[in-house]
């Protein structure tokens, strides 16, 4: 029953994030340092998490995907605004498998990208990237576990917590490594907006 209530708002969630991003960019248009970086980051924010979410490992606890790798990589590399947009890209991956999860995935991954990008931007080096990834990952995990608890009870929440934590940990490790190497090579990418 609760899945039907959430599925009712299915088409709106990625569009709301996209609309919020467009409004944010419009308001901050004078602060955009590079329009090319903004477009590149926006396209990557939509394409990378959605494509990494299509591939996964089926376990008896659920499907483990690489969505968090894409969200954290984009957030750490391009900053909080584009990191928040990556939540919409993460939601697109669920169109084929579990569409009722799209709203919660978009909210959780958008908050993850926003917090990861913000914490990563305010520091230097790998320690700031890891701190940003852990902070964003904890928020995404909390949102996903709360949703599983709400929709399926404590058993569903406990059963799927390990799946979410595995995705987040993989995202932190691989996202930090990818973003750290890209940021070292191309300085200034995170200063898009």
Overall form? globular
End-to-end Cα distance:
41 Å
Largest sheet: 2 strands, antiparallel
Mean pLDDT: 81
Total strand segments: 2
Structural class: mainly alpha
* SSE string: HHHEEHHHHH
Structure keywords:
193 residues, two-stranded antiparallel sheet, mainly alpha, 2 strands
Structure description:
This protein has helices spanning 2-8, 12-27, 35-54, 67-78, 80-92, 102-121, 125-152, 154-185; strands at 56-59, 62-65. It has 193 residues and is mainly alpha-helical. Strands 1-2 form a two-stranded antiparallel ribbon. Strand 1 and strand 2 (62-65) form a beta hairpin. It starts with a helix and ends in an 8-residue tail after the last helix. The model has no long low-confidence stretch (mean pLDDT 81).
What is the gist of this entry?
With 193 residues, the protein is mainly α.
Topology readout:
Elements: H1 2-8, H2 12-27, H3 35-54, E1 56-59, E2 62-65, H4 67-78, H5 80-92, H6 102-121, H7 125-152, H8 154-185
Antiparallel strand pairs: 1-2
Helix pairs in contact: 2-5, 2-6, 3-4, 3-5, 4-5, 4-6, 4-8, 5-6, 6-7, 7-8
């Amino acid at each position: 029953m609760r899945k039907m209530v959430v599925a009712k708002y299915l088409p709106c969630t990625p569009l709301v994030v996209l609309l919020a991003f467009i409004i944010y960019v419009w308001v901050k248009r004078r602060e955009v340092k590079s329009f090319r970086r903004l477009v590149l980051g926006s396209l990557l924010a939509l394409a990378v998490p959605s494509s990494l979410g299509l591939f996964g490992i089926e376990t008896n606890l659920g499907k483990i995907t690489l969505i968090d790798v894409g969200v954290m990589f984009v957030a750490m590399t391009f900053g909080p605004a584009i990191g928040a947009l990556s939540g919409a890209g993460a939601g697109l991956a669920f169109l084929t498998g579990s569409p009722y999860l799209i709203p919660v995935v978009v909210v959780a991954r958008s908050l993850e990208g926003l917090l990861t990008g913000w914490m990563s931007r305010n520091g230097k080096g790998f320690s700031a990237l890891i701190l940003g990834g852990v902070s964003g990952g904890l928020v995404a995990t909390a949102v996903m576990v709360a949703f599983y608890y709400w929709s399926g009870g404590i058993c569903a929440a406990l059963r799927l917590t390990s799946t979410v934590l595995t995705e987040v940990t993989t995202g932190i490790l691989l996202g930090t490594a990818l973003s750290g190497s890209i940021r070292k090579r191309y300085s200034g990418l995170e200063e898009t907006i």
